[in-house]
C-alpha cells in the first residue's frame, strides 16, 4: 500500500518456460520448475526456489483463506555469497476479518555468518505473527541454537509506506537463559567488530556466563544497521556470573567476576562488581564505558578501596585501559614501606 497516487515499485520480472525471474538489489532470484493448480477457492503450487523445493497450498473456508508455505533445505548463499548453510522454512497462515495470523518455523542445521565467527549449530527461530493494516505483532518468539536460548516479542507500527520502510518504528523485547560467554562471543563477526570491541570481548573478558534479564530495542528499522543509532536505541539489563577480566598488558587478571551489566543511552555500565585476584578481593566496583561507538574507548571507575598499595596496583593493572593508564601506577612498585 501507500499514499494516494503512489505506485508500488515492482522490479523487472520475466516469465519464460515455467521460470519466473526477478532482480532485487542487483541480485537475481528465480522460481523454477513451476507446476500448480488453482480455482476460485483453492491454490496449490510446487516449484524450486534457491535450489530447494517450494510448496504453497491455500484453501478458502467460508470467507477466509488458510494454508501453508514450505521451503526445504534452501542454500543461504543464494541470498549472499558471504553466507553458508541450508535453511528450512514452514509458514502456516490464517486470514481473519481484520488481520492475517502466521505461525513461522525456521530451522538450520548449520549457518555460517560472514566476518569469521564460529557457525551456529541446530539453529531455530519460531514465532506467531499478526499482520494488520498498520500493525505487525510478533509473539511467542523463540530463537535458539546448540548453545543459547532467547525468547521475546516484537512490534512494527505503520503506516507501511512503500518508500519509507527504514522509518518504520520497531519495538523489540528479549530475555535469555544463562549463556556461556565464550561460546556466545565466538559467534561474533570478529573481522567486522569496532577496533575496541574485538580485544575487549574476545580477549580481555573470558569465562563465566551472562543472563539477559531484559533487552529492549526501541527505534526505527534503519537504526539496526547504524551502529551509533543502534546503541542509543538499545537497553540491556544482564547478570554476569563467574567471569574474568584482564587488559592483557601484563599477567594480572581478575577472576570470579559477578555483577550487573547495563547498556543505557549508548553507555556500557557494570555495577556492583565482585571478584578476586592472586593478591586481593574486589568488592563493589562500578565500571562505566561512555559512548560505546566513540573512536577511543574510555573507562570510568568508581570504587571504595581499603587495601595495601601492592594489592591496589595489581587490581589497577588487571583492569586499566589504555596502556598509558595501565602504566600510571608503575612508581608504586618502587615503594618499600
Give an overview of the whole structure.
- The chain is mainly beta and 337 residues long.
- Helices cover 10% and strands 54% of the residues.
- It contains five helices and 20 strands.
- The protein has helices at 181-185, 197-204, 227-233, 309-319, 323-326, and strands at 13-16, 19-24, 27-39, 42-49, 52-61, 64-75, 84-95, 100-112, 120-132, 135-145, 148-157, 169-176, 179-180, 205-206, 209-220, 234-245, 254-264, 267-276, 281-289, 300-303.
- The protein has a 20-stranded antiparallel β-sheet that branches.
- Strand 5 and strand 6 form a beta hairpin.
- The N and C termini lie far apart (78 Å).
Tell me the number of helical segments per DSSP (H or I, 4 or more residues long): 5
How far the N terminus sits from the C terminus, by CA atoms, comes to 78 Å
- Overall radius of gyration: 26 Å
Give the ordered list of helices and strands.
Answer: EEEEEEEEEEEEEHHEEHEEEEEHH
Q: Largest sheet at a glance?
A: 20 strands, antiparallel
Helix content: 10-25%
- Total strand count, please? 20
- pLDDT below 50 for ≥5 consecutive residues: which ranges? 1-5, 331-337
Overall mean pLDDT stands at 83
Determine the structural class based on helices, strands and strand pairing: mainly beta
**Gross geometry:** elongated
